[in-house]
Amino acid sequence: MQSISDVERETGVAKETLRVWERRYQFPQPTRDALGQRTYSAEDISKLRLIKRLIDLGHRPGKIIGLSLDALQELERPKNGVHGAAAGDERAAQLHSCLALCRSHRSDDLRYRLSETMLQSGLHEFVVEFLAPLNVMVGEGWAAGEIAVHEEHLYTESVQIVMRHAIANIPARRDEAGAAPRLLLTTLPQERHGLGLLMVEALAALGGAVCISLGVQTPVGDIVEAAMLHRADILALSFSSMMRPKQVADALAELRGILPESVEIWAGGSAAVLRKHPPSSVRVLGLRDIEGALDAWRERRIQPSDA
User: Fold this and answer.
1) pTM of the predicted structure, to 2 decimals
2) Is 78's pLDDT higher than 60?
3) The domain 2-79: what is its CATH number?
4) 182-302, which class in CATH?
5) In terms of DSSP H, where are the helices of 104-172?
6) How many CA atoms lie within 13 A of 58 on its CB side?
7) How far is CA 215 from each of CA 186, 201, 222, 244, rounded to the nearest angstrom?
């Protein structure tokens, strides 16, 4: 039998996420040792590893956690076969098609293609499975001199238009007894890249959060003032690889020192320092983690966490 810390380390599923799944989906159902601490079986760990892999492939936790081990394995199997290869080839073709439209300056066609892909796949899958790798491709093309600055700007503007329209059409959920966290989103003054922020806003809005976006390049003092005025529960900050590690670490430490502990700080993006040296008292999240993190926030408001 393994402890909850062991399971977190072996599966990549955070402790608080395990607790949320236990209460919400009745899996896993750990036993308790003599001290009342959760312990997990080898079968639990095997299933959790598989669930984590499927979530990383884009499946939603609520759709798969209740499935049997056989059903989960069946879901994963096509990804390794001919069907999965064909799907991967099709997705790669779609990505390269959007890149070609950007390079040929066909902004209207690019926006149409992005919107069409989003309608076909749904906003969550579009953000996680399509837009995230497309952003990487555009960034790499710009860094290699294959995409001009004006073409990168055209791409950014096109994505912003499509994403803003999609976010505006997400139905608002009723905030029952404070169940909807108030999420303040922005970047630091040195960070002008805002697509990551939009992607987080879309996923958070899908997860039922009330999103207040300040856009990019907000001074620290203004971030703090806005967090207080808007009664933010969570401050979400996006960092690109262009940010210097010291800038990231110093700003996060400053914000954590000023904001009350009741305001959580979430950080994400491609800045390597977030993974290599994650700051204390700040949650470092990827796009796939947003839904689970919102669920965990709600659970913490309902009852204090235990071991």
Assistant:
1) 0.73
2) no
3) 1.10.1660.10
4) alpha beta
5) 107-121, 123-125, 132-143, 149-168
6) 13
7) 5, 11, 12, 20
